[in-house]
Amino acid sequence: MRQATDVPSITAAQMAEVDRIMTHDLGVDLLQMMENDGRHLADLARRRLLDGDASGQHIVVLAGLGGNGGGALCGARRLHGWGAHVQVLLAGEEGALAPATGRQLDILRRLGIPILGAAAAGDLGRSALVIDGLIGYGLAGAPRGALADLILWANGHGAPILALDVPSGLDATTGAIHEPAMRATATTI
After folding, report:
1. Considering the domain boundaries, does residue 25 fall inside one?
2. Could you tell me which residues are beta bridge partners of residue 186?
3. Residue at 20 is within a domain
4. Does the residue 41 lie in any domain?
5. What is residue 2's predicted lDDT score, i.e. its pLDDT?
């Protein structure tokens, strides 16, 4: 019998190879993968952390500049479609976004979803949920700058935190917990 702690895992390098196989060998483009991540993220948020109903719930989505941020932005769009009041805190300058992530942000902007800089975190009121789409499996050392600031804000906010793939600040290969690291309530897998 499998123990509750026996969770299958792969290293960050192995996950990067999975992504490469998906895009280059199988022809599944990055936008498709982001859509799948976002759909799963939003569904898990609604079912597990919002008692089955996102309508009227205040949700803050923390988005990094790469693919993890793009998946979180897709989840934000779905939660918005289910009636949630979503606000996005972007961890950097829009000009630095990966192209697919920038496309996801543009969709949110067209929908009228508020997109704020990391510095606006202190001005936000309480929320029912915080979504961590800051770093993902590509972590290289301890989070710094706006990434670190947003992790510290989320950890002190008091709302449950749902991390996409890997809590920001956790090394996906070694399991090392950097300072700061997101204290996620749940993580998508």
Report:
1. no
2. 162
3. no
4. no
5. 46
DSSP code at position 135: -
Tokens 């050392």, located at residue? 141
**Residue 50 φ/ψ, nearest 5 degrees:** -120, 25
Angle at 101 between CA 120 and CA 68, to 5 degrees: 80
Q: What is the DSSP string of 5-16?
A: T------HHHHH
Angle of helix 67-81 relative to helix 30-44, nearest 10 degrees?
50
Query: CATH number for the domain including 154?
Result: 3.40.50.10260
Question: How many contiguous H segments (helices) and E segments (strands) does the chain have?
Answer: 5, 6
DSSP of 56-122, one letter per residue? T-EEEEEE-SSHHHHHHHHHHHHHHHTT-EEEEEESS-GGGS-HHHHHHHHHHHHTT--EEEGGGGG
Tokens 């996950």 sit on residue:
15
Say if CB 105 and CB 97 are below 8 A apart: yes
65-79 pLDDT tens trace: 999 999 999 999 999
Which domain range does residue 95 map to?
Answer: 53-120+131-187
The alpha carbon dihedral of 91, 93, 96, 97 has a sign of positive
Evaluate whether residue 15 is within a structural domain. no
Total number of domains constituting the chain:
1
End-to-end Cα separation, the chain, in angstroms: 21
Q: Which two tokens stand for residue 49?
A: 């952390």
- Predicted TM-score (pTM) of the model is 0.90
